[in-house]
Design goal:
Oligomer: homodimer
Order of helices and strands of chain A: HEEEHEHEEEHHHHEHEHHEHEEE
Distance between the termini of chain A: 42 Å
Number of helices of chain A: 11
Largest sheet of chain A: 7 strands, mixed
Strand order of the largest sheet of chain A: 8-10-7-11-9-12-13
Shape of chain A: globular
Helix content of chain A: 25-40%
Structural class of chain A: alpha+beta
Largest interface: A-B, 74 and 74 residues
């Protein structure tokens, strides 16, 4: 793929075929996309900036996986609001001679956007010495129904979907040299485990091809019992702390519940609490609606488990503590921080 | 300004005070911003990615001017749709030790967003070796009324606002060493010429502190006579060609009209046709509504001139030609292109 100029590159992107919907009236090709919001709905908007060498390494992450991850990470923010994605925008800067890499990124992005029926509505292209991607996603939710970080109340249960810590464990595997060839994975963008593949595959897959919990987010929203939600992009400890800070409450994690999520050397407690890029949903649940929510969630085919982790408390607002047999231990503010000295 | 972590940086941003409106229900602080579209309106959405060394040089562009320009360039895309900006998102990556630079960028951005009553609704922060900024802007227009690039018809007049070419001339001045100190300019974010400042100031100001034509865009839209619109971020030749390509028509520029925009050595024909970052509005106008539009535009206090440049023709679709006394000359596809070898 070598296109001689920006216009040809844009036409190549358009020609790849992307999902369409009634929201995006005009996509790629004008100064702005033109979108038509559904009556009675609100929009949720998330943006993300990923820089080579900081957020991704091209020697461990195949470009198609990178495209998938950019999609997944941003769709996950929409999932955390209990919203439905309606438009995706991708801006990209990359070395002019690396159009092959850009094409693979777009193919990975197209795989996940197709899976979630989300149009590519626009973006911006430029050449640069290093790769850099910026994503914006718009989602829709009925007015006043979007899930926020700020609604947790003392007594609420704390739950997390799926397999927290697996992505962090997968990153360790990758850094240690365990990898699959990119073409294999591209042939199966859904990335299911195939015969003969060991448990490492689950962790690697979680790191390279995370699945945003969009259907789960809608189910949680519709239960009416979720009081606060966030996606676990920075690890449970840091993300739960965000709920605590924004809700003015504390969180008490049950040590035994956390131990149950550990898988020997493969997935450690550090992975569960501090591993990034899991893109699971971390929610607080009103006890009055909890039983119905759990039953409804468990009955949905293909849904992951919903693990109870602990509860929201009135004490130590803004702080997450671990309740063990020997007493309560404040969790350090862990998780990756770009600006910590 | 040294904040110890991302959370403190975000709180610093929030504390600076930004415009508010009814559209942005929840801004900074959740997984997504929550926005409420006005009934009967459509949204227009633009995104932009700016990389240090490609789109800006920090040794010639003071950081506050850079923040202003990021704002202006993106608001200009909203203006080109005849829309009103309702929410701005800025993602930034910069060296962790350069928080001073980031703060100045945010101050410049705040100056222009305040001027146009546009909230900062969210973004994303990370550390990186080089600076990189990604902007997303949402705008609103009555349903079906947004101006597009694709509506130009043979016979339509071609017009441009203000002072095309000035920004390109200003860039030349800057590259040649002519500059003002940044603190002076920051003290007057509106950047009006002050006593004793020569004509160079106009060009420099146009490059460093361009004014998006938002009020002009609304006036042009409301005239009902504008058939296509684009903002001149890449020079008239390239931008007008976009209108021609998307409208399936040709454009014939009047040499004498273009000559009138030239100002000796200061603003050359190359600046007018190929200079970037002017952020003027280039529109095509139905002859039936032209007289009323021109009269209405001229009557608005503070509006720039609206220069006639030529007309849309049925011949040579997708091509811009210059009509001179000696005949028609096709304009080369000029203007900056990241991917041209």
């Amino acid at each position: 793929l070598i296109r001689r100029n920006e216009e040809e590159l844009i036409r190549w992107i358009e020609s790849r075929g992307w999902p369409e919907n009634a929201f995006v009236r005009r996509g790629i090709g004008d100064d702005c996309a033109v979108c038509r919001p559904a009556p009675g709905h609100e929009l949720v908007v998330t943006t993300d900036l990923l820089v080579e060498g900081r957020h991704f390494l091209l020697d461990t992450t195949p470009a198609a996986d990178l495209g998938w991850k950019i999609g997944a990470a941003n769709l996950s923010d929409i999932a955390a609001m209990g919203a439905r994605p309606v438009a995706f925008f991708l801006s990209a800067a990359f070395p002019a001679a690396r159009q092959d890499l850009f094409a693979a990124v777009m193919d990975g992005l197209r795989a996940i956007l197709s899976l979630h029926a989300t149009p590519l509505a626009g973006g911006d292209l430029s050449a640069a010495d290093h790769c850099c991607f910026a994503a914006t996603v718009l989602g829709e939710a009925p007015a006043g129904r979007a899930l926020l970080r700020s609604g947790a109340r003392p007594g609420d249960g704390i739950f997390v979907t799926g397999s927290p810590g697996f992505a962090g464990a997968g990153l360790r595997l990758l850094a240690g040299g365990w990898r699959k060839t990119a073409p294999d994975r591209c042939a199966d963008p859904f990335g299911r485990k195939r015969p003969g593949e060991g448990p490492e595959w689950d962790c690697l897959q979680k790191h390279l091809r995370p699945e945003p919990r969009l259907a789960e987010g809608l189910c949680l929203r519709d239960s009416g019992a979720v009081t606060a939600a966030i996606d676990t992009s920075d690890g449970i400890a840091k993300d739960l702390r965000q709920i605590c800070v924004r809700s003015g409450a504390g969180a008490l994690l049950d040590d035994a519940r956390l131990q149950a999520l550990i898988d020997g050397d493969r997935v450690t407690l550090a992975d569960v609490l501090g591993g990034g890029e899991d893109y699971e949903l971390l929610v607080t649940v009103d006890p009055a609606g909890e039983a119905a929510l759990l039953a409804g969630f468990a009955s949905r085919p293909g849904f992951p488990p919903l693990h109870r982790l602990g509860r929201i408390v009135a004490e130590h607002p803004g702080e997450v503590r671990l309740a063990a047999a020997t007493g309560e231990v404040p969790l350090p503010v862990s998780g990756f921080d770009h600006f910590r000295p």
